[in-house]
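*** Query protein ***
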Amino acid sequence: MGFMDKVKETAAKGTEMAKSGVKAGQDKLDEQKTRKKIGDLKEELGGVVYAQKTGTGNGSADAEIERLVSEIKDAEEELATIGAESGDDDATAGDAAATTATTESDPAPA
């Protein structure tokens, strides 16, 4: 193998490493956005349930709860997909469960 062949091979490897780094960064960004969305939806869900339980809701709480639960499920599936694509779906599933437990135990803002 000539010197130029080695240079081309090294350049190709460098390009592949850069592409995988960009992909990993994008996956991480998508994961964080999805986690934020899930947290926001759960906070909104808590507000709707609180309004329903205290009688201050507008009467459409059940439909709103169903919509929010559906959106949360969709976002959690998206989060699992992001983890599976990045190759660390076991760690992501554990992180998602930890996020869910943490978010559910947080009191609703006043």
Summary: Confidence is low (pLDDT under 50) at residues 89-94, 96-105. The two ends are 70 Å apart (CA to CA). The chain has one domain: 3-105.
